[in-house]
TrEMBL record, chains A, B:
Descriptive protein name: CASP-like protein
Disordered, as annotated region: 1-25
Organism for this UniProt entry: Digitaria exilis
Residues forming coiled coils: none
Subunit and interaction comment: Homodimer and heterodimers.
Membrane-spanning parts: 34-54, 80-104, 116-144, 170-192
Record's subcellular location: Cell membrane
GO cellular component: plasma membrane
Main location as per UniProt: membrane
Family indicated by similarity: Belongs to the Casparian strip membrane proteins (CASP) family.
């Protein structure tokens, strides 16, 4: 009878704890997850500051009148850059909230449901961030190279400082998009390991 | 002894088959997955055709010379539209391959590993498609509205047909991006149901 109890007890233990090696691996990935979220916060905040401070005024001389007209350039001039600012803002807030949430709740909150919900949000934010990066990048490219077919002149030869700000912000947004895809992959891997 | 065997057998059966209700639900989601992939194929193919046929030549009169100069507009004029074409091409191929693969292999191939890999690819393609949509959308918006600050004139008043093609293609790409995010969500849900 003792053998019986031991055996059925063992079986019950196996049923109650189906994937013991996962939790160790999950811990490691959870650390990478929090670190990536902290990095995402830093990158989006930097992108936000760089974009918001993209402002330059250039004096264009008007030979006929003998005066110089100030022509300012700021990120608000293009809807694509406003979209990028909004995307960076919400992603920055999202990364802060999820990183703090993960740190406060610890490993107790890393249930399958929470990982699934985080994965959905990561995918959504990755898509929004990627589209904003593409949109601002497309406009910035015209500013840098111009388009002879449509006679859109490049402006970066005159507005060098402004363009450096915009370019840096687009680059940081690209990094943020890649981090979000990585975060989605990490969460997907966590779910995958639990499902095996 | 017979009772013992029955009990341990029952426990073993529970351990071997941890989530019996999942497979039925998975079948339903797998059908939605294939249907969405077929829709994705149709949408990206339509977007591809509409973008590739975006070509219009407008005659601009030159009053001084008394002649009209033909000015063609085609999607190759902007790197953003070339990027969109490439993104639509690879997504179209990807949707075809995965839809056919799912149909041929049936439910036997829907292992956790395959779902995980498909989820990763879906997220990657969603990000690429979203960035291409944003990029082309940003340039198309300048073509439609112009930008008075940088003196980029709108061209859609002259090239109406060309702009309709580009606009339709960008809209179809947006639909494709949303479908890819939905596919990622469905695969994530499959993994989540298996992990419970």
């Amino acid at each position: 009878m003792a053998t019986v109890d031991a055996e059925s007890g063992k079986a019950a233990a196996v049923a109650a704890e189906p994937t013991p090696p996962v939790s160790g691996g999950r811990g490691g990935f959870s650390g990478a997850d929090v670190a990536l979220r902290a990095l995402l916060f830093a990158v989006t905040l930097a992108g936000l500051v760089v974009l918001a401070t993209a402002k330059q005024t250039v004096l264009f001389p008007v030979p006929l009148l003998g005066v110089a007209v100030p022509m300012p350039a700021k990120f608000k001039d293009s809807p694509a850059f406003i979209y990028l600012l909004v995307a960076l803002c919400v992603t920055c807030l999202y990364s802060l909230l999820t990183a703090v949430g993960k740190l406060v709740s610890g490993s107790s909150a890393s249930t399958a449901k929470n990982i699934f919900l985080l994965l959905l949000l990561d995918v959504l934010y990755a898509a929004v961030m990627a589209s904003a990066t593409g949109s601002a990048g497309g406009v910035a490219w015209i500013g840098l190279k111009g388009n002879s077919h449509t006679r859109w002149n490049k402006i970066c030869d005159a507005y060098g400082n402004f363009c450096r700000h915009i370019g840096s912000s687009v680059f940081l947004s690209l990094i943020a998009s890649i981090i979000l895809v990585l975060l989605a992959a990490i969460n997907a891997h966590s779910l995958y390991r639990r499902s095996r």
